[in-house]
Amino acid sequence: MRPSDGTDARKDRKSWSARSIGSRWQHRFFYALIRLAGRRAAYVMVVFVALYYVLFRPSVRARSLPYLSRRFPGRNGLLRLWDCFRITVEIGRILVDRAALGILGPGQLTVRYGKREELLERVREGRGLILVTAHAGCWQFAMESLRMLETPVSLLLHREEGDVDLHIFEHSGDEAAFRIIDPAGPLGGALEMLQVLKHGEVLCIMGDRAMGSDRSTVGVEFLGARVRVPISPYRLASATGAPVVVIFPYKSGPGNYSLLVEKVIRVPEDLGRAPEAYRPYAEAFIRALEGFVEERPYQFFNFFDMWNQEPTG
Amino acid sequence: MTTVEKLKMILVEDLNLEELTPADIYENAPLFGEGLGLDSLDAVELIVIMQKRFGIEIQNLDEGKAAFQSVHALASYIEGRLKTG
Questions:
Q1: Min CA distance, A199 vs chain B (Å)?
Q2: HSE (CB half, 13 Å, CA atoms) of A66?
Q3: Contacts across the A-B interface (CB distance below 8 Å)
Q4: Does the model's pTM come out above 0.95?
Q5: Surface of B (65-84) touching A: CB under 8 A
Q6: Which residues of A touch B39 (CB under 8 A)?
Q7: Nearest to A219 by CA among A140, A292, A311
Q8: What is chain A's mean pLDDT, rounded?
């Protein structure tokens, strides 16, 4: 289950899968462990599971290689294995925290908000707010933490059939902190997205995952090579006048998360439909993401080869 | 000028369909995918254009789906909404 960029998911010829690499029983094992022994016991187990995956599942190493080889160029052999292990442990622990939050309740974790007032100010503008984030840290915590805005939050999310990875609210049975707009739905969710912004609400979009046709993306340099990123957040902003805010949620310690409010992007109105018109804004996002992965290299979980993505025409 | 003609002109101008003229647009061709080739982001702009140019707000998803089938369907929808005020 992963959020998407809001373009035509149906047309997407995907080279990636959003499904968890773990099987249903493995997920259930961890959920039971968290219930019986707590989060820290699950943290320890994650180390062994990550070691197994990194040593004996070449597909796991292959999935992280495109990013790691660009973030740490020149490393190979044991150092590359170490990087792969670190990033696998990191995502494993985040998944444990996510499950613990749903199973054991909110007391398990603390979330710090940087520039909370900045976000509130942008919401008060009354033109809706577009939050652009990435497959970094734990986006589901970001969604949960946005309850503090006291404004409905919607997220573009395309959920794959058969994904066994559960949301926080699916563990707890609580009401979801956010509404889901499916980009594979009618009109690619366009009408729903506009309604959200028109009502002054918050719309969250992934800025690092391009789906749909080449016309909905633009090529930008990321970690030394070109990637295609969606223009949908910026085109929506241009059409509606909504401000764009780049946020990255990240794990700042055991059981601790922070919401980094990176920058505000203002997109002029009526820029039209040519993707090139949106390049400066996509660039601004990618520069922010580069800064994030420089500081927190093991918290970027975009496990597909962004650098080898052919335009889908 | 009929609503269909006006709509074709607006589509070309406001959506910057540089490769097309209003005469090139077949009124029964689908707006999205094959046909005019618009995508979901164009749908966003089209909804905004409807508000700006005709003062019409599409709120209902089913209504929107039906209206966005083709230029002809959209023109009929606009005429219907303008009649009912």
A1: 12
A2: 18
A3: 66
A4: no
A5: 65, 68
A6: 7-8, 188, 212-213, 215-216
A7: A311
A8: 84
Beta strand ranges found along chain A (DSSP E)? 2-3, 110-113, 129-133, 153-158, 179-181, 202-206, 217-222, 225-230, 244-253, 256-265
Residue A219 main-chain phi, psi, to 5 deg? -85, 130
Q: If you measure CA to CA, which chain B residue comes closest to A188?
A: B40
The ipTM, to two decimals, is 0.79
Residue-wise pLDDT tens digits, A201-222: 999 999 998 765 667 899 999 9
Residues 6+ apart with CB under 8 A from B85: none
Checking if the pLDDT of A75 tops 60, the result is yes
Tokens of A104: 């054991």
The answer to whether A7 contacts B61, with C-beta atoms less than 8 Å apart, is no
- Measured between CB atoms, does B16 come within 8 Å of chain A? yes
Pick B16 or A35 by higher pLDDT: A35
* Tens-digit pLDDT profile for residues A130-176: 999 998 887 777 777 788 888 999 988 776 655 555 555 555 556 66
A12 pLDDT tier (thresholds 50, 70, 90): very low
Among residues A194, A182, A152, A265, which one has the least CA distance to residue A5? A182
A187–B43: do the CB atoms touch at under 8 Å? Answer: yes
Contacts with A, B 23-62, CB within 8 Å: 32, 39-45, 47-48, 58-59, 61
Instruction: Show the tokens assigned to A154.
Output: 């919607």
- The tokens for A311 are 């335009």
Residues of chain B scoring pLDDT < 50: none
Let me know if A224 is exposed, middle or buried by CB neighbors in 10 A (0-12, 13-18, 19+): exposed
Helix, strand, coil tally for chain B in percent (to 5): 60, 5, 35
Identity of residue A231: I
pLDDT digit string, tens, across residues A232-248: 999 999 999 999 999 99
3 state SS of A2: strand
